[in-house]
Amino acid sequence: MAFEKQRQRLAGVVAIPVTPFTAAGDVDAETYERLVERLVLSGVEVVTPNGNTGEFYALEEQETRQCLEVTAKAAREASVLAGVGHDVRTAVKAAKHARASGADMVMIHQPVHPYVSRAGWIDYHRAIANEVPELGVVLYVRNPAIEGEDLAQLADVAPNVLGVKYAVPDPVRFRTVARDAGYERFVWIAGLAELSAPGYFAVGATGFTSGLVNVAPQISLDLFRRLRNRDFDGVMEIWDRIRPFEEMRAAHGNANNVSVVKDALSQLGLCRPDVRPPSRLLTTAERDQLFGILSSWGLS
């Protein structure tokens, strides 16, 4: 099967690293490299620069290129799944840069457009995937209007599409889409992180994306091992431990999703807590709450 190594790795913990900034507000390449190395040395096999936890939509084009290049350098033997998006030309340009920099896959962010037709959704992804046939392509599906038959039609015209990061908060909908698209045709990745992973694994997912893995890699990797081994008592034990952290990220419509991860890394001395608008820094009360969570994990 084409892209077999990539398929095997996507059926695991897909890390979405943060993008650290300097005091002047620029991308901190040295710190970024250390954070990626920390993930890979912990056992992570797929790293996604320019994902949403990496503040993709707050980065300039040159900054996304820099993040990709740093990741490719630091990833060692791990797979690099480069986030690309925006208009077709921009996404293709980024995908070709990812290929030239050593990435072996790209993740196409959902089209940011007020008027998305199903046929147009297929055309958008086909246009990007066909320009980089040597790379595996992962779809980032957040639109509940996309049907399984749409994914199957896309795979017919873009055979390098191998994975689906499914981020519609509805496991029943996920199972329906995956069944209609073909379970074996794609690697199905739970795209709403650790708290949703058990429900999605129960109906066919084999991997999950994670921002928490930046902070506590072994917790995320242990959760995956238990999910893979169907040790659901162990899964729920970990689930209960991480729930306060993930609920902080999800509060207020995910307003602090990245801020919580970066502040946790800051409290561990790993990077600055800075985020770019429209995200914001945590309040003192929120930072104290987060400190308590990290202490309960033995990390503070």
In short:
50% of the residues lie in helices and 12% in strands.
Describe the structure.
This protein has a single domain (4-215), classed as Alpha-Beta Barrel (TIM Barrel), CATH 3.20.20.70. It contains twelve helices and eight strands. The protein has helices at residues 4-10, 29-41, 61-74, 88-101, 118-129, 148-157, 171-181, 193-201, 217-228, 232-254, 257-267, 284-296; strands at 13-15, 46-47, 79-84, 105-108, 136-141, 161-166, 187-190, 207-210. The chain is globular.
Q: Give the proportion of residues in helices.
A: 40-55%
Total domains = 1
Name the shape in a single word.
Answer: globular
End-to-end Cα distance? 45 Å
CATH architecture level-2 label: Alpha-Beta Barrel
Label the structural class: alpha/beta
**What is the H/E string?**
HEHEHEHEHEHEHEHEHHHH
Kindly list the characteristics that best describe this protein.
300 residues; alpha/beta; Dihydrodipicolinate synthase family protein; 4-hydroxy-tetrahydrodipicolinate synthase activity; DapA-like; lyase; 8-stranded parallel beta barrel; TIM Barrel; single chain; Aldolase_TIM
Draw up the topology in text.
Layout: H1 4-10, E1 13-15, H2 29-41, E2 46-47, H3 61-74, E3 79-84, H4 88-101, E4 105-108, H5 118-129, E5 136-141, H6 148-157, E6 161-166, H7 171-181, E7 187-190, H8 193-201, E8 207-210, H9 217-228, H10 232-254, H11 257-267, H12 284-296
Parallel strand pairs: 1-2, 1-8, 2-3, 3-4, 4-5, 5-6, 6-7, 7-8
Pfam families: DHDPS
Protein name: Dihydrodipicolinate synthase family protein
GO molecular function, one term: 4-hydroxy-tetrahydrodipicolinate synthase activity
